[in-house]
Structure to design on (451 residues):
């Protein structure tokens, strides 16, 4: 029998500590340490004694034996990098109620006939699943489904039926008999996922795991599994909006940051194949504080509206709030605006927001963000047919961004007539664009647009 010891495991990040504390020293989350027993040594292992295993040359290994399987849902395949690979383990995280079960049921229906599948639910009864399938109007509702939460039973079923694709909804409901801790705790989550990964690699079955993102930390979040799986997708949405974005944050078999867009309707999720103008709220009249930019999400340019509100602060410590953009970046840009643009916003509250619940992490949004703030501060609107992109450096220079031409082409396609871009992104003469392009290399040149 292996010796066991007690450890306090953070339910948010999985870090373990020898003593209880109110705050996890690793991720900083509060009240997430839970007492758990861990095996001090694994039974049957003795250090130093092992059999040699066969080493093979990479060029002898048949890499072609892993062709991609497309789901048939184009937006999903795009995010996965053109479908999944046999034996891959994919984690889909998202807030409860965002539509994970709906999407996966639709995905299973889409591959029906091409691939043997199994839908394992630990959250709903089979009749609830059947009702949902009916509501979705799925062409065939005879998908193999299993309501089970014991990982041992699930693995036995998978081994017996050998499906090509298994969906586990959700990993947080599973438990293994080998551990005492409650389902949903970090140790259960890790052990169940590890067993599924092992089976997937050994049998070539692709496994999709659903993980709820939790705020309270009472059940462990999908973050603790990210390193164990091949691909991590996150489902995001703007509260109140029917659009759902799905993004790859890790992908061993494709590019990350690809974005898939769906719309939630009465009959399930519908693909939005041309989302480039989705995040624009077209104003009738030009309004101060609104700037349209072209951001790149993976391989796809998207037009997005950045809004700012700059208002005299009533508190001693003016507020800086950034939604959909990085807060630190906002502070840095305001400092650049002061130092190189001569505009002091030190006594002003500054709020910035990306419309439609979109998140922009690339520096191409620097210039639009600064211009939006400036436009709000001065009460001067920018033209509604203008798009802006460019990185702003600490020395007040405007740096080029990747894929400049592609962004301009998309803006022209959506009917924009003017563009303000970094000098190095000025389109080549050979590129015919129905756009009046102004290229700038310094912040003060760009600021003329909001004066
Ligand atoms: P669900 O897939 O159950 O979310 P998750 O598995 O991520 O928790 O989706 C639940 C929400 O989706 C629920 O609020 C109702 C809504 N919905 C629709 O709007 N249309 C539909 O056709 C379905 C099936 C669900
Ligand atoms: Mg669900």
């Amino acid at each position: 029998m292996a010796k066991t010891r007690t450890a306090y495991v953070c339910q948010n990040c999985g870090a373990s500590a020898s003593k209880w504390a109110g705050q996890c020293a690793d991720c900083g989350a509060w009240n997430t340490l839970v007492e758990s027993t861990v095996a001090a040594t694994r039974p049957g292992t003795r250090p130093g004694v092992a059999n040699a295993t066969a080493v093979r040359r990479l060029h002898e290994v048949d890499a072609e034996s892993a062709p991609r399987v497309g789901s048939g849902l184009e937006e999903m395949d795009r995010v996965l990098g053109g479908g999944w690979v046999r034996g891959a383990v994919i984690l889909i995280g998202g807030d409860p109620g965002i539509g994970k079960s709906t999407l996966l049921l639709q995905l299973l229906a889409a591959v029906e006939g091409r691939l043997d599948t199994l839908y394992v639910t630990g959250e709903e009864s089979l009749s609830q699943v059947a009702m949902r399938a009916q509501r979705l109007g799925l062409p065939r509702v005879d998908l193999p489904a299993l309501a089970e939460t014991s990982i041992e039973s699930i693995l036995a079923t998978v081994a017996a039926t050998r499906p090509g694709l298994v969906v586990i909804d959700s990993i947080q409901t599973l438990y293994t008999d080998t551990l005492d801790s409650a389902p949903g705790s970090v140790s259960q989550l890790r052990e169940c996922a590890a067993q599924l990964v092992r089976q997937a690699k050994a049998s070539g079955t692709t496994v999709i795991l659903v993980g709820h993102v939790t705020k309270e930390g009472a059940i462990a979040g999908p973050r603790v599994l990210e390193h164990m799986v091949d691909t991590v997708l996150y489902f995001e949405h703007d509260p109140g909006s029917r659009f759902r974005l799905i993004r790859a944050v890790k992908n061993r078999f494709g590019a990350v940051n690809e974005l898939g867009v769906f719309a939630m309707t009465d009959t399930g999720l519908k693909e939005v194949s041309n989302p480039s103008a989705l995040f624009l709220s077209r104003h009738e009249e030009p309004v101060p504080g609104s700037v349209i930019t072209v951001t790149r999400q993976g391989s796809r340019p998207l037009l997005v509206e950045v809004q700012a509100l700059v208002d005299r602060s009533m508190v001693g410590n003016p507020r800086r709030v950034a939604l959909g953009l990085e807060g630190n970046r906002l502070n840095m840009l305001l400092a650049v605006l002061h130092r190189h643009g001569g505009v002091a916003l030190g006594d002003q509250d500054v709020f910035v927001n990306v419309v439609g619940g979109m998140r922009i992490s690339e520096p191409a949004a620097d210039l639009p963000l600064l211009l939006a703030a400036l436009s709000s501060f001065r009460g001067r609107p920018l033209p509604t047919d203008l798009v802006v992109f460019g990185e702003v450096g600490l020395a007040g220079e405007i740096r080029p961004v990747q894929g400049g031409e592609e962004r301009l082409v998309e803006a022209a396609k959506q009917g924009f007539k003017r563009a303000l871009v970094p000098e190095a992104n000025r389109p080549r003469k050979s590129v015919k664009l129905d756009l009046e392009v102004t290229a700038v290399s310094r912040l003060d040149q760009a600021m003329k647009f909001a004066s």
